[in-house]
Fold this protein.
Amino acid sequence: MSLRLSTVILPVRRWHEGGRDQWLRAEQLGFHTAYTYDHLSWRSFRDGPWFGALPTLTAAATATERLRLGTLVTSPNFRHPVTLAKELISLDDISGGRVTLGIGAGGNGFDATALGQEPWSPRERADRFAEFVPLLDTLLTEGAVSHEGTFYSAEEARNIPGCVQRPRLPFAVAATGPRGLRLAARHGQAWVTTGDPKLFEDGTPEQSLEAIGGQLARLDKACAEIGRDSASIEKVLLTGFTPEANAVLGSVDAFVDFAGRHLELGFTELVIHAPIPDSDFAADEVVFEKIATEAAAQLDG
C-alpha cells in the first residue's frame, strides 16, 4: 500500500519571518497535505506566538500551487457552523479547491474557556459535535439553510456559490468514541486518530498498535451499520502522540518501521510535525526532509 505523507505546521512563526517559507518548503518536499492546528493557543505554546488557523491557511493558499491544506482539527469550542462555513467556502475558493477540514469535538484546553464560558462536559462536547457536523455539512452543500437546534441555529444562511470541491470540501473527522465514529462514517471522507491517549506516556508500541486496531474495527462497524464500505474512508494517523512520540522522526529507518506497521493496519495517510526547536516537536530538520523525500519510496519498494 502506498503512503500519503503529510505534515503539520504549527502557526508559531510570523508570516514574513519564516512562516511563509515553511509552507513553500512543504510543497517543495512533496507532502500530500500541510495542516495546521485550529486553536486560540495550545499547551506549552500558550505564552508564545500563535496565529489563527484560517488566515494562515489563506496565506498559504496564495503562496502555494499544488499542496493540499487543512486543519487538524477545527472544533466547536470557539466556532459556529454558519460563520465557519462562509470562511471555508472562501478558503476553498482562494486555494482552488485544495482544502480539507479536519474536525473534532474539542477538549478541555485553553480554547474551552477563552470565550468566558465554563468548559463543557464530555457529554456536552459530544452532543454539540453531533449537531455541529451535520449542520456544517448542510451549510456547505446548500445555498440557503435554516435550522433550529439545541446548540446551533441558522436563519436563511446563504452560502453561494458553495465550494469549488463538490459537493463540498472533504471532512476528516477525528473520533474514537462510538458517537464520533458514527459521524465519521456518515459525514467523513477521512477519519483521524492520534492513537490511544491513555497509552502515550506509559504504554508500549505493541499496546498502541492493538488499541488503534480496535479503533479501526469500530470504524468498520460504524460504516457497516449504515451500509458504507469503510474502504471509502481515508484513514489518517497524526503522529507524535503514540508511545514512540517524536522518536519516529529520529531517523528515516525509524520512521519507515513505524509507518510500515501502521500501513499494515490500514492507514492511508500519516502526518508528521514540522520540527520546532526547544519543544515537544524538536527534530533534526535534515532528517525530517529526508523522511519527506525518501520514506515513501522505501515503503513502496
Notes: The first strand starts at residue 4 and ends at 8. The chain has eight helices and ten strands.
